[in-house]
């Protein structure tokens, strides 16, 4: 827990630094991206295949900087989190098209299971909750490079007054030495990773009295998100 507090403090500091610079980076990037697209179109029209390929690489790299800056902004927002009673099924439904589209591109099947005994109303900020589920399903899909199965399972645990969303994949799993570090800001094993996805998820869940647990060995990963049921 002490480590978690330290890591959250570190995230807050990163956020403060990012607040001052992220916009300054994003605005010029938008301009560069726009003009590169124009140049790319012209090159295509002129049959400059090779040069067009270079432009594509540049646009992709700009995309990477953009998403990193986007994550910085996530940390820097003085988030007035709006905690309300939200239906987890609705939150998931809203982001399902995005997930399914990504899955289709990577030969991944998506299965949704519901084991609910009540309407899964939880005390949370719906937009931030979407962010959490998108980060986690993204990780799951990135782990299944050759396709696989993504399962989203919804349960209610009435004894603990919680809704549990389980996101599991059939990827390679997480080795023990890696598992210890995955919540550290900037820890990543991916070439294009930022290492901010899980720390952001945990921070968001922490703010709404939720919890995240990850179970993984050498076959597949299960991520459990616990959310507090709205008091009836
Ligand atoms: P990023 O995705 O940018 O690397 P994250 O904080 O989202 O950053 O994840 C940190 C690391 O945790 C990943 O680089 C990966 O090694 C590991 N990880 C997270 N989710 C999974 C998963 N479902 N399967 C395997 N490894 C995972
Ligand atoms: Mg990630």
From TrEMBL:
GO terms for molecular function, please?
ATP binding; phosphorelay sensor kinase activity
Tell me, which GO biological process terms does this entry list? regulation of DNA-templated transcription
Protein EC: 2.7.13.3
User: Which parts of the sequence belong to the Histidine kinase domain?
Assistant: 20-231
Q: Which UniProt keywords apply?
A: ATP-binding, Kinase, Nucleotide-binding, Phosphoprotein, Transferase, Two-component regulatory system
Name the reaction it catalyses. Answer: ATP + protein L-histidine = ADP + protein N-phospho-L-histidine
- What's the protein called, per UniProt? histidine kinase
